[in-house]
């Protein structure tokens, strides 16, 4: 590790920080024990690419699986919300924050 790596931001995109915060919140609320999380995430990451560019994609998929498996939200709910965010992102003018209110079908 280089000294410059220590000064790099922890997250390269805001959604990564939000995903991390959601995972922490689920843990703190007692819905997702860290041992279970780390086992599930580790199992998914085994096939990851060497440069870790798929790290957050694996994180998101692991979280979706765990939330569904624990009946916090169903797979259909998660998929519907993901589509709503995608529609909102496509409908949001460049440079503005993406919010669910921007989903044209909401």
TrEMBL record:
A Pfam family hit: NHase_beta_N
Q: Which range is the signal sequence, renumbered to this chain?
A: none
Q: Which InterPro entries match?
A: CN_hydtase_beta-like_N (IPR049054), CN_hydtase_beta_C (IPR042262), Elect_transpt_acc-like_dom_sf (IPR008990), Nitrile_Hydratase_acc_put (IPR023808)
* Designated name of the protein: Nitrile hydratase accessory protein
Q: Gene3D superfamilies in the record, alphabetically?
A: Nitrile hydratase, beta subunit (1.10.472.20)
Lineage of the species this protein comes from = Bacteria, Pseudomonadati, Pseudomonadota, Alphaproteobacteria, Rhodobacterales
Where the record annotates domain Nitrile hydratase beta subunit-like N-terminal, the positions are: 7-87
């Amino acid at each position: 590790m280089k000294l410059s790596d220590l000064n790099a931001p922890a997250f390269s995109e805001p959604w990564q920080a939000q995903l991390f915060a959601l995972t922490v919140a689920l843990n703190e609320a007692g819905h997702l024990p860290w041992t279970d999380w780390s086992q599930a995430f580790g199992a998914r990451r085994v096939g990851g690419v060497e440069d870790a560019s798929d790290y957050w994609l694996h994180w998101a998929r692991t979280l979706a699986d765990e939330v569904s498996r624990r009946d916090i939200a169903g797979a259909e709910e998660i998929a519907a919300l993901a589509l709503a965010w995608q529609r909102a992102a496509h409908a949001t003018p460049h440079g503005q924050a993406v919010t669910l209110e921007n989903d044209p079908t909401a």
